[in-house]
């Protein structure tokens, strides 16, 4: 497979950064809509959320760059993006495509990590509220984002699926706490729903990448279990999302919230059918991305109406 990205070019770094995958960044919209109307246009609140988002982008870019470096070094990316995998876009992996070198990727990952830390410190400095739990949550999120598949290699020790969800949870709860000083049940449940979105397309990627992950000993659920066991796990996570949607009215959300999230429920069922009924895992992954974005739009609309 050929690539149109020039070696060492800005385009190669853009591909490395995966800036088109915005799904974690959408959490800031959910946070903004969850705020009381008086806070939505408050200068200090908007500044804090904006700076936090910029730092978030740098931290996640560092995370995915270091993940690519590790995946290239252990051979899993070469296996998963091999020429016999035409559905995968090779130029999304600049090391495999040969458009960036290992030193370039490592340097880029470390620089963006440092910038991300500095920007997040700036967000903490200007935040209207700084309860200790938010400071700890931001620090823990930063540490484990960089250690996801580099350093201690969290995802190589059986924690990958939990991390994919927990990152989304933190990226809603932390900025909300910084601008309001606390959280309530509605915020927590919506953060949990939000975090399951990236997980529920990540597990389909893992299903597609099972051979390469097994080869390098990366213990995803898909790699550790049988195809049926993996299917049951994905179905179980999907069911957890449904239970959270049904539970929101019990913690203070509107009674009609599950009806508003009906598109999410139906699309999630379709994702399962396409992925495991029809066996089209990569199309199911694409559906998962769409489901997450539909969910975010719905959460924002519901919160603007209710709060």
UniProtKB/TrEMBL annotation:
Where does this one sit in the cell?
Membrane
Keywords of the record: Membrane, Transferase, Transmembrane, Transmembrane helix
**GO CC annotation terms, alphabetical:** membrane
Gene Ontology MF, one? transferase activity, transferring alkyl or aryl (other than methyl) groups
Any coiled-coil regions, as ranges? none
| Highest taxon in the source lineage | Bacteria
Residue ranges spanning the membrane: these are: 21-39, 45-66, 105-126, 132-150, 162-179, 185-205, 232-257
Q: How does it sit in the membrane?
A: Multi-pass membrane protein
Q: What is this protein called?
A: 1,4-dihydroxy-2-naphthoate octaprenyltransferase
